[in-house]
Design a protein that fits this description.
Layout lengths: L2 H16 L7 H12 L6 H9 L3 H10 L11 E6 L2 H5 L2 H12 L5 E2 L5 E6 L11 E3 L2 E3 L4 H14 L1
Parallel strand pairs: 1-3
Antiparallel strand pairs: 1-4, 2-3, 4-5
Helix pairs in contact: 1-2, 1-3, 3-4
C-alpha cells in the first residue's frame, strides 16, 4: 500500500470516527472527506462502504445525486451557474452557453490550467436576483454575459 492510500485510509477513518454513532452519518462523513481532500475519491468508496456497513452502490448513489460532492479535484476557482427555473427565466441558458465558451469547458470540467471548474447548481437561493452565479464562496446576482466576463477578468487579474 502506498503512502497516498495510507493517507486516504486515515482521512476516511477520521471522518467515520468523527461521526460514529450518529444517525445518518453518510452525508457528514462524505462532507468531511471532501473538506479534507477537496473531493471524494473513488478509492474511498470501498473504505466508506466497509466502515459504514453500506453498499458501494448506496455511497455512489449519494455522491452522484448531490451536486455538492465532487469525484475529482476542482480548479482553483469553482464557478457554479444556477439552472433553476427562476434563473432560466431570466437568461441563465444564454449565460451558461457564454460561460462554457469563455472558459472552453463544459459542466463538470476544469480548465487545462486548473484555474476554473464549471458546475451546474439547481438553486442558490437568490431567485429574486436571477440569474445567479456562485464563484468560490461568493454569490453574484443579475449576472449578464458582460458581468460574467468581468468577474473572470477580475479573478485572472488577481493571479
Amino acid at each position: 500500500m502506498n503512502s497516498s492510500a495510507v493517507s486516504l485510509r486515515e482521512i476516511v477513518d477520521s471522518a467515520v470516527a468523527e461521526h460514529h454513532g450518529k444517525i445518518g452519518t453518510l452525508m457528514p462523513v462524505l462532507h468531511s472527506v471532501q473538506e479534507k481532500l477537496g473531493f471524494v475519491p473513488s478509492e474511498s468508496v470501498p473504505m466508506l462502504a466497509q466502515s459504514l456497513n453500506l453498499s458501494r452502490a448506496e455511497i455512489q448513489g449519494v455522491i452522484g445525486f448531490y451536486h455538492d460532492f465532487r469525484t475529482s479535484p476542482a480548479g482553483e476557482h469553482l464557478i457554479q451557474l444556477c439552472r433553476a427555473e427562476a434563473c432560466q427565466a431570466m437568461g441563465s441558458r444564454d449565460l451558461e452557453l457564454h460561460a462554457k465558451q469563455r472558459l472552453g469547458i463544459d459542466f463538470g470540467e476544469t480548465t487545462e490550467d486548473g484555474r476554473f471548474t464549471l458546475e451546474p447548481v439547481y438553486c442558490l437561493g437568490n431567485c429574486a436576483c436571477a440569474p445567479s452565479v456562485r464563484i468560490n464562496d461568493g454569490i453574484h446576482a443579475r449576472v449578464s454575459t458582460g458581468s460574467f466576463d468581468q468577474l473572470i477578468d477580475d479573478l485572472e487579474a488577481q493571479e
